[in-house]
Design brief:
2 domains; alpha/beta; 21 strands; globular
Length: 423
């Protein structure tokens, strides 16, 4: 469920007309619904009521500070993968003792800042990282609570670019090697073993891969405890998908996911940690674009819009589907047409959708690309010297710009001429 709906023929975000936002800030722009963010977090949290859980929103899904703070105010922690995301989480008000540091390439300076900040846990992805963390923690006279990220070699059955739990993926430590690495961790100064971490991929719509991975982790808990390791936390990652195609690809609800989690690992007496991102932010955001004009090709019609792949790269990067809705519903009966919806960038991959059926569109009409709240603005670029699009948050009848569109002068001023070219 989300809070984008038609009212009197115009698409609204909660109680605000998207056409009114477009008139004030221009297009393209991202728009997020606070009510949807809050609802999705609450539904997930409520599914685990009565259990010892820590929900750490995955900042990489949507790292706008207003989004993070909205969730922090509900009690969420943060799963971060870089120094920049750590700084964002702290600025948004996430308590340090609710922050988990994931990622395969943590550098010494990032580990140092995280230790000085006092974060809750490091999800260690490799032996070299473990050794480096020990060195940094010892130099600071601190102790780092860790969970080794175990790669269970389970196929998540999702897109190849977002599966992370197979043996050939770069993530984690092979479950076969994990006991040896835990034994090494127990010998290292500055390291405190706290638990196990596992994350097998993103946009899962089937519980079976989760269950297979978590069952393997449950067996590992018993093995590690028998070896003398104190395992008190299980970080089960994120990955629960969202319905990008309306009612045609509805993933299991959080209640079913929670029941499966409790069945597989609920008996172990561990704190359960989760890192949902897309499930919270995905359907809470949309990208609104304006029609520039229609171009008729030999065998198809192209609807050229002012948004582009630099604003939303998911369709060309992941072959992703986003529902496309007109902001203004058609007021007259007219035969619908099939359009390829494309942007102005000089790349054949610059498209949002292909062969979509829409009422005839005119220059200046507005279209909304739905389910763009996760992995949308965070992956945007300034390719073709296109400004990053603004981000808007709606709260009931009000809206605010939570990241402005930079001016061209601001963009160009980031470049510097060397002395030999300055004249």
């Amino acid at each position: 469920m989300h809070h984008f709906h038609y009212r009197d023929g115009t698409l609204h975000a909660e109680d605000v007309s998207l056409a009114d936002i477009a008139a004030e800030v221009g297009t393209p722009f991202y728009c997020y619904s606070r009510a949807t963010l809050e609802r999705h977090y609450t539904v997930f949290a409520d599914a685990f009521k009565g259990t010892d859980t820590l929900i750490c929103y995955s900042v990489k899904a949507n790292s706008n500070i207003a989004v993070i703070k909205t969730l922090a105010d509900l009690g969420s922690g943060a799963d971060i993968v870089s120094e920049g995301e750590l700084r964002r989480a702290i600025k948004a008000g996430v308590p340090a003792n609710k922050i988990v540091f994931s990622g395969v390439g943590k550098q010494a300076r990032e580990l140092k800042l995280a230790l000085e900040t006092g974060i809750y846990q490091f999800n260690v992805e490799s032996e070299p990282e473990l050794e480096l963390l020990s060195q940094v923690a010892t130099s600071l006279n601190k102790e780092a609570a860790i969970a080794l990220r175990v790669n269970p070699d389970v196929d998540a059955r999702t897109h190849e670019k977002i599966t992370t739990g197979k043996a050939e993926n770069k993530f984690g430590i092979s479950w076969k090697q994990a006991p040896r690495v835990y034994a090494r961790a127990a010998q290292l100064p500055g390291i405190k073993i706290a638990g196990i971490d596992v994350h097998i991929g993103s946009q899962l719509t089937d519980l079976a891969p989760f269950e297979a991975a978590f069952t393997r982790v449950a067996g590992m808990v018993a093995e590690l405890r028998q070896a003398g390791h104190e395992i008190t936390r299980l970080d089960l990652g994120g990955g629960l998908g969202i319905p990008y195609r309306g009612t045609n690809d509805v993933p299991p609800p959080p209640t079913d996911y929670a029941a499966m989690v409790k069945k597989t690992v609920g008996h172990l007496g561990c704190q359960l940690m989760f890192e949902p991102g897309r499930m919270i932010a995905g359907n809470a955001g949309i990208l609104v674009v304006g029609v520039v004009y229609e171009k008729q090709g030999d065998d198809r019609s192209f609807l050229i819009v002012d948004g582009a792949m630099n604003d939303l790269i998911r369709p060309t990067l992941y072959d992703a589907y986003h529902e496309v809705l007109p902001v203004h519903e058609a007021t007259i009966e007219a035969p619908c047409r099939n359009y390829d919806i494309v942007g102005p960038i000089c790349e054949t991959g610059d498209y949002f959708a292909k062969a979509r059926t829409l009422a005839p569109q005119q220059p200046g009409d507005l279209l909304a690309l739905m389910s763009a709240g996760a992995y949308g603005a965070v992956q945007a670029s300034t390719y073709n010297t296109r400004p990053l699009v603004p981000e808007i948050m709606v709260d009931g009848t009000q809206f605010a710009v939570i990241r402005p569109r930079p001016t061209y002068d601001e963009m160009l001023d980031q470049d510097r001429l060397p002395d030999w070219l300055a004249s």
